[in-house]
Write a structure and sequence with these properties.
It is built from eight helices and no strands. The chain is mostly helical and 124 residues long. The chain has one domain. Helix 4 packs parallel to helix 6.
């Protein structure tokens, strides 16, 4: 309980539904399948990356293909801190900088422990 009155300029609460940007369930499933080693899911992610603008999808496409063009697109679409961090970690992975991947992944996973793509990149 606060002793001060609420600040009218402050957001009172955050709703995961209203204020969050949940990942498309099909996209999440495809990323989980890629992480699990499903070869057909890799093709699905690369195909979808050519049609969609999700920064996590584009970052995953860059990791799978090694194509930095996907990273440039992902950077342009990354609006949240989480998305920008995922793109930075994917970029370090594509560049082969495992020390940077580890350092960035540790920080990212401290704030976003549910980030499967980052946990996968850090483990690989």
């Amino acid at each position: 309980m606060s002793l001060l009155p609420p600040d009218p300029g402050r957001q009172r609460a955050v709703s995961g539904f209203r204020d969050g940007w949940p990942m498309d369930r099909d996209l999440e499933d495809a990323l989980r399948r890629v992480i699990g080693g499903d070869i057909s899911a890799r093709a699905d992610v690369l195909k979808r990356a050519g049609q969609e603008q999700d920064p996590t999808l584009l970052a995953m496409a860059a990791v799978l293909s090694g194509d930095r063009e996907w990273l440039a697109k992902a950077e342009g679409q990354a609006a949240s801190t989480r998305d920008r961090q995922i793109v930075a970690i994917a970029s370090a992975h594509v560049a082969g900088d495992s020390d940077l991947v580890d350092a960035l992944a540790r920080d990212h996973l401290a704030d976003y422990p549910d980030s499967l793509i980052v946990a996968w990149l850090a483990g690989g």
